[in-house]
């Protein structure tokens, strides 16, 4: 993986993208429960492990998967109740199945090519029980059809870490041919000779396109919504109704693995602290 100041320094990552109230993990738990998810959970692109750790402390049996060894080392040190695995989301093989797979904060969009997406979904299919859930949260490609504000100018942010101010200048633009949102970020901090340049990119996925990839991969989309989520304004609150507009800058997905043999659906194992099936909200949010 290319050098990345944030993934190479997980403490700095958490300072730059704080989530003190564990909104992301609580959101994932909420939607998984609404759609009947069970307790064995795999968090793909788990990063610092903060979501995995919170979910494990709240009754899930969690495995976190990431490609960044610094992130995983940080996660292992802080969340001993979680198993962390170094693997690529496009090719992992853990030899077992889960009730829920989460993939949060645009980690899925590192699948930049169609083949990457297909491989990722195939791996998810191979690691979910029939009826298991894929819960994902990411940027919304459709947002840029109506709002290009994020593409204007350069955003400068500073974060203090170990007494040193790290300043980033971030510029985003769209590579239409590759259907990627590209980012150029420079970092500066006292004592560094010159700016550190970093480039990355996310796949821009449109909701109907994502639905198609999922359908072909054997998933039924249960909900696709632009909020509320952990990174929307207003942000997610427990049990909040889901917004169906799909014009916002975040895209949230809940999809269920179909039973390939067409047998009656096998429900995932019940969550140990779950409400009864009757109390679960049968929500379907179609675009
Ligand atoms: C934006 S971070 C999200 C981290 C975490 N989910 C969160 O919300 O805090 C994306 C993560 O995906 C990981 N990642 C990127 N490409 C990956 C790949 N091909 N396989 C597994 N992990 C990958 C990165 O190392 C990084 O930790």
UniProtKB/TrEMBL annotation:
It comes from the Bacteria. It holds the Pfam family Methyltransf_25. GO terms for biological process: methylation. It is an enzyme of class 2 (transferase). The keyword Transport does not apply. Residues 42-132 form the Methyltransferase domain. GO terms for molecular function: 2-polyprenyl-6-hydroxyphenol methylase activity; 3-demethylubiquinol 3-O-methyltransferase activity. SUPFAM superfamilies: S-adenosyl-L-methionine-dependent methyltransferases. Keywords: Methyltransferase, S-adenosyl-L-methionine, Transferase. Residues 259-287 are annotated as: Disordered. Its EC number is 2.1.1.222, 2.1.1.64. The keyword ATP-binding does not apply. This is Class I SAM-dependent methyltransferase. It comes from Streptosporangium amethystogenes subsp. fukuiense.
